[in-house]
């Protein structure tokens, strides 16, 4: 069968005429009955490779057989060599993104640490996307928390600048980090670049997992400082060694040869696949990542091979040795590909015994556990969908409650009144959708007026404030529910979504559950014996309450702290700003001595005495 395509004229085949396929190396494109490319593969022998798909006895499981049935015809592209086939396959996968290929998600979801060594005084930042810009990237890390924890350790033990580059270029005087000895202050002071670069080199050693080498280097510097009777510097270096040793204690040593290596292992269950990658640097296990995939025509060897190509194409570091849980089909081609990127010799091994085999077993266990967690998480998604379906039925809601928005007010006797909005999508909190509101138009304490104001601000601009929720919930029972209904009717968007109110149980009357109210009925909704529904709505209400309370406390705190400085004679807006910029917080101003306060530019001796007197009171 022949098929015309935009790039020219190419021969197409059906499963019935495989005998016509060339036995040369090349790439094949599997297509469904609509002509969509559903899988791209490479082969040393195209005919032999494609034939394997249509021989049922060779299918590893039922799933592969079902996917093969979706192949209506296929096309081939002959190449000069396997290497050329590899490059072409990679390009076609990137371009077409076929459904049943292994496609590694963009590395932006995995945070990395960036050290831009091209800057005169480099800084370390957490980034989501790596670039080929000459900077050094370390990671990716399994979570933002892991990346920021590493950054915290570095900032605590190394005097690298902490300020952003934009601030660094415009700062006129050193910040608090310089004052407490955590930074050399290159933003304003003439810092020796060689000294600063030594700090950068130490950080690179640390991030590459060479902490023992770094400790040895610092110990040598400590001894030299001690011999020169520079005891203050020697003590500082001693404390740094102690901190780094504590970091090492938290790491797991897994090899004794101190070679950098990665270990890739695979676990499979029906249509779900998990690839685990362990990172060992200098003998220490520093990272474990899981990469889930679903539905593919590739076998386990192809999956590992494709994963290696795609992963190391995006990362800026390739170790000298890669261990795999199963042998690769095209080991030499993969080596050539990686060595072309790294410009160094690399080894890919599938160990059968010894220390390296133990590492592979560890990766396999992590892959299996990751797969189990992945399947459970998908089950959770199914559970939440069923829960929301039952909620829609119970409330007799017009729309499926995919997006739920809940509002709550918070104030104490009308002081610093605020409100919070929390969003749940598909049964889970959507933190990016949370909103904080300061009450602006209501002067007297009035919870109903507060609710009316924030609902008008949220929904009063129509399409500009999309998406609308499927279900709006207000905390406060009938009164707040009636307020919400009135506001929505006034705005002319009645019927766009369902509205409910949630009221706390009255223990005095013996009630055991919160009550859910709907517009137009006096009695609460009968939630039946299904406690999961009311518990779910309570969870949303409690999260909204927590969010609003936290915002109210922060506003109250700012107001009370600000008023302390505002009440000091001679301290206006500028001097208040100078004091806060210099000390960093009210607490540190309170702990300061008279001489330290007088040292702040713009603060006279008389004003400093007034500040000290106020805080001592």
Unreliable residue runs:
1-10
- Beta-strand share of residues: 15-25%
Q: Note the quaternary state here.
A: single chain
Terminal CA distance reads 93 Å
The helix/strand class is: alpha+beta
The general outline is: flat
Mean pLDDT: 82
**Tally of separate domains:** 5
**How many strands?**
21
CATH H-level superfamily title of the largest domain:
UvrC, RNAse H endonuclease domain
Secondary structure: helix percent? 40-55%
Can you tell me the CATH topology of the largest domain? Nucleotidyltransferase, domain 5
Question: What Rg is obtained from the alpha carbons, in whole angstroms?
Answer: 32 Å
| CATH class annotation of the largest domain | Alpha Beta
Helix segment count? 19
CATH architecture designation of the largest domain: 2-Layer Sandwich
- Characterize the largest beta sheet: strand count, sense, and whether it forms a barrel: 7 strands, mixed
GO molecular function: DNA binding; excinuclease ABC activity
Domain UVR: 212-247
Organism: Desulfonema limicola
GO cellular component, one term: excinuclease repair complex
Brief synopsis:
This protein has helices spanning 46-53, 62-68, 82-96, 144-157, 165-170, 176-179, 193-207, 211-227, 231-250, 300-314, 331-342, 354-395, 447-459, 478-490, 531-566, 573-583, 586-591, 594-598, 605-616; strands at residues 2-5, 8-13, 26-31, 37-43, 73-78, 112-115, 124-127, 136-138, 252-253, 261-269, 272-281, 284-294, 321-324, 347-349, 403-412, 415-425, 428-429, 435-438, 471-475, 498-503, 515-517. The chain is an alpha+beta fold.
